[in-house]
Backbone:
């Protein structure tokens, strides 16, 4: 089930919230959450839900063994078994087609390529179980004895299918002991409304621009290619951070405090900083669990770095452009590492801003084009070697037609809410006014978003109609 | 003593706590030094109580916030579930999603759960009014119209195909595939973006008219011609004609926007040069001559039947067959028509400027049989459909869907049998040729499940007409022409 549809917002969610409010005590509330989470997942994956439950069972059991044989061989064996199982599942369901296609291409073999549909959320929940197992192995957390509580951690529907990658350690205590204050609930609901608005009012509208200029790159001008790529970069940001907002907001309504996943990434001054602000839960996952894998010996600083970026790329999708995308970022972080923090700071801030945005926008273009031929056309066009010139009337029309949307999107890339809050928090009257205004604005955003969603089922298509 | 002090301390504590419970207004009393009994009370706010009050105020705001959003959720729930559900969308030419039937198979495939969600999303009460509000009020907030002609440009979005009005209700679903970070969109093979510079899928709205911008053939016109030449090789005794039809792109772009589209005429000329022993029919010239008449829809990507009349006239002239004057037809006008371009763009400009849809009924008797795409399951039918039987008035209403083979037997006994291979533009030609051929077989190139050459021999066709708009002839649909020959 997708968050940004009326069925979720006005049927699934209200019923879930009502049941949750009516349930007395944390135990019953947890039961309600598990039931709704399983319904939520099974809605999109009536069959693959068993795969997720199996993953839950395997990891739960492995963690119990880890606890029992702490520091002994059994501990290591259970850790390895669980991690291998998790990676194997991810490999089979996400990458087998891609791997076999490439083997066939490389050796001109004709191994049958399986047509496996990607189970929703597998990339996210697999990483959650891996982090749980390794944390148990490192004795950072105690293995969860109750399967029900473990299932709650894994299946909690706000974060189940699109992150953030919630660590067991961050919600361990809240599973059985949590207080839900009035301000938690109101904050959470406002955050949900904000996330939905980011997704529907900004990301979905920007996608129309991105698609018409990048989707048709052969017909785009140089300026059109850049315009499309910028729209796409913002689209992905609002789309993904909107989803994270909804997840964090819903978590808060239920009394959980998930870590932030985005911190205004376009405010970064270099690529290293970008990745400290973009999809934070993924970056910290790789930092904590992969960067220190001692396979590169003394050179692990750089070797590990490229391994992390290779994995980041692969994680995003089974396609070469994602791998290139990951390594592309790895390369710039490597260069920044060579220059060193001190020397980087000598460079004027505005130059660092231009440099980082330039790299990021090209990065998103790489992310967009799964077809490497078209990626080539993009590069040719964007750097002035395209066949459609610098600017054409369609660029101007589209820009004027969308000028307020683009302005709003650019403004929303700045930490606007935080800045306002910093000022209003100093005086009580201002703080109270701001909170009241936030309530009204959230309600308005939710209503407007819902109205737009009424039309989201229209699915026009051109070629076939002729 | 110490015990007493303890007691009195305890008592004081009690008093304090009792006082706090009652929350009296705290005050400092200052007595005047010179007059006895005269004192003033200066109320003060205890620091703690101020904090508490602020906390209570914030709590109230939070509560109001929760109630406000709760009211939106409750209102939305009521609206989506209890208000009457819509069943058809006139502006989109389709029936809305129906509540799915449960079966184990439907459930395990995910179709059932998807269907339930689609049903609630799709059939929202007063959907058309809400859509109009979006088009009129919300979408214009995105920006301004461009230039003196007030132009709006629409590109292609994350879209799923709708094949025909009939198939639409099942095909409706916009899946936001952002649940995984890949954010890939599902594109059906036929929609697959064309090769570089081959086609654009953009629509310009200018002068209250939507125009699909023609992206040019870039070599594919040679393929179209070669496919037709292959038909001539397979069917040497049949007269074969090619009539590629221009679209509004050729005639209605103001000079300022001409650069947005490629020249259809130049591609037509290239096609003509590449055709072998095939008669090329120039529909461009007569259509251009009549471009000030309503020969193309303003709100639909199709032409109007009047345009088809002029094109058919040109064809009849080349084929050497009789051609009745337009006065021989009964003219029917359907006002208030808003066509497919509104569906694609959701532009308020089109919605608020509907047009007349005018079609022509032959006065002569014809017998019409509809077949499936295998030329089986014949059903007697009318040449033109009954407007009251369709979800909306418009091009598809009058000319039906494309997924069928239509056979028309006419009163014109000249022994000429015509097979037409067409796209949806060709539908409008059929009524205009009922006075010209004895038998007409109308087949859609995209929905044809037989070997074309065998079919043409079977029905003893004397003439074979390929007619489709430029987008089909040079776009992905062109491959269907050849595929039908080798099936």
Residues:
């Amino acid at each position: 089930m997708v968050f940004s549809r009326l069925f979720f917002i006005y049927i699934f969610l209200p019923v879930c919230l009502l049941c949750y409010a009516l349930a007395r005590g944390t135990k019953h509330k947890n039961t309600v959450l598990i039931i709704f989470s399983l319904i939520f997942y099974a809605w999109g994956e009536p069959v693959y839900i068993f795969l997720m439950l199996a993953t839950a069972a395997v990891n739960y059991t492995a963690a119990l063994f880890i606890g029992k044989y702490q520091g002994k061989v059994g501990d290591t064996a259970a850790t390895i078994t669980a991690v291998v199982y998790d990676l194997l599942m991810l490999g089979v369901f996400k990458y087998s087609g891609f791997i076999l296609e490439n083997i066939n291409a490389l050796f001109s073999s004709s191994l049958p390529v399986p047509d496996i549909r990607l189970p929703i959320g597998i990339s996210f929940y697999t990483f959650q179980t891996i982090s749980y197992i390794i944390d148990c192995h490192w004795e950072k957390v105690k293995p969860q004895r109750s399967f029900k509580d473990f299932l709650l951690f894994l299946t909690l529907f706000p974060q189940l299918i699109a992150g953030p990658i919630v660590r067991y350690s961050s919600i361990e205590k809240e599973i059985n002991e949590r207080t839900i204050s009035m301000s938690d609930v109101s904050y959470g609901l406002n955050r949900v409304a904000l996330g939905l608005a980011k997704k529907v009012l900004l990301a979905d509208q920007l996608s129309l621009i991105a698609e018409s200029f990048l989707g048709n790159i052969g017909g785009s001008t140089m300026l059109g290619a850049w315009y499309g790529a910028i729209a796409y970069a913002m689209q992905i940001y609002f789309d993904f951070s909107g989803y994270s907002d909804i997840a964090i907001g819903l978590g808060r309504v239920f009394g959980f405090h998930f870590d932030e996943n985005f911190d205004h990434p376009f405010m970064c001054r270099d690529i290293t900083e970008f990745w400290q602000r973009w999809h934070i839960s993924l970056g910290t996952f790789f930092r904590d669990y992969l960067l220190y894998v001692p396979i590169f010996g003394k050179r692990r600083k750089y070797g590990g770095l490229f391994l992390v970026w290779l994995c980041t790329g692969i994680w995003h999708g089974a396609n070469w452009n994602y791998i290139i995308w990951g390594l592309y970022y790895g390369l710039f972080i490597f260069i920044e590492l060579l220059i060193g923090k001190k020397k980087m700071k000598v460079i004027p801030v505005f130059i660092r801003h231009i440099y980082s945005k330039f790299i990021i926008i090209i990065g998103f273009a790489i992310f967009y084009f799964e077809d490497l031929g078209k990626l080539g056309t993009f590069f040719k066009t964007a750097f002035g070697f395209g066949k459609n010139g610098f600017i054409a009337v369609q660029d101007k029309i589209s820009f004027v037609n969308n000028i307020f949307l683009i302005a709003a999107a650019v403004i929303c890339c700045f930490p606007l809410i935080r800045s306002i809050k910093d000022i209003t928090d100093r005086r009580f009257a201002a703080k109270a006014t701001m909170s009241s205004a936030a309530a009204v604005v959230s309600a308005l955003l939710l209503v407007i978003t819902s109205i737009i969603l009424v039309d989201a089922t229209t699915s026009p298509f051109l070629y076939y109609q002729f | 003593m110490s015990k007493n002090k303890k007691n009195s301390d305890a008592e004081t504590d009690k008093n304090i706590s009792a006082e706090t419970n009652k929350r009296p207004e705290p005050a400092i009393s200052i007595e005047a030094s010179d007059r006895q009994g005269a004192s003033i009370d200066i109320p003060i706010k205890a620091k703690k109580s101020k904090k508490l009050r602020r906390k209570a105020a914030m709590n109230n705001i939070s509560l109001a916030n929760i109630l406000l959003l709760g009211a939106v959720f409750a209102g939305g729930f009521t609206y989506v579930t209890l208000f009457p559900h819509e069943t058809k969308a006139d502006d989109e030419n389709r029936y809305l999603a129906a509540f799915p039937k449960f079966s184990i198979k439907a459930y395990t495939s995910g179709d059932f759960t998807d269907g339930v969600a689609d049903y609630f999303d799709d059939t929202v009460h007063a959907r058309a009014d809400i859509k109009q509000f979006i088009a009129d009020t919300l979408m214009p907030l995105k920006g301004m119209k461009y230039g003196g002609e007030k132009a709006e440009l629409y590109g292609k979005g994350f879209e799923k195909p709708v094949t025909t009005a009939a198939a639409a209700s099942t095909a409706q679903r916009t899946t936001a595939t952002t649940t995984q970070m890949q954010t890939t969109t599902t594109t059906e093979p036929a929609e697959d973006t064309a090769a570089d510079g081959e086609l654009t899928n953009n629509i310009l709205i200018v002068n209250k008219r939507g125009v699909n911008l023609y992206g040019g053939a870039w070599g594919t016109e040679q393929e179209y011609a070669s496919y037709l030449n292959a038909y001539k090789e397979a069917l040497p005794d049949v007269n074969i004609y090619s009539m590629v039809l221009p679209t509004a792109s050729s005639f209605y772009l103001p000079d300022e926007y001409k650069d947005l589209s490629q020249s259809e005429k130049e591609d037509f000329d290239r096609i003509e040069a590449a055709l072998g022993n095939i008669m090329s029919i120039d529909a461009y010239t007569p259509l251009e001559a009549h471009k000030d008449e309503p020969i193309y829809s303003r709100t639909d990507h199709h032409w109007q039947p009047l345009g088809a009349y002029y094109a058919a006239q040109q064809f009849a002239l080349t084929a050497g067959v009789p051609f009745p004057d337009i006065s021989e037809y009964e003219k029917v006008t359907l006002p208030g028509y808003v066509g497919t371009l509104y569906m694609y763009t959701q532009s308020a400009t089109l919605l608020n400027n509907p047009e007349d849809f005018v079609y022509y009924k032959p006065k002569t008797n014809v017998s019409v049989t509809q077949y499936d795409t295998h030329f089986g399951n014949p059903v007697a039918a009318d040449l033109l459909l009954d407007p009251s039987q369709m979800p909306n008035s418009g091009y598809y209403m009058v000319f039906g869907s494309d997924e069928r083979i239509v056979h028309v037997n006419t009163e014109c006994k000249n022994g000429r049998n015509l097979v037409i291979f067409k796209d949806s533009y060709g539908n409008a030609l059929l009524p205009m040729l009922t006075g010209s051929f004895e038998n007409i077989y109308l087949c859609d190139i995209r929905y044809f499940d037989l070997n074309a050459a065998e079919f043409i021999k079977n029905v003893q066709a004397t003439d074979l007409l390929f007619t489709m708009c430029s987008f089909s002839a040079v776009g992905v649909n062109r491959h269907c022409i050849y595929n039908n020959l080798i099936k």
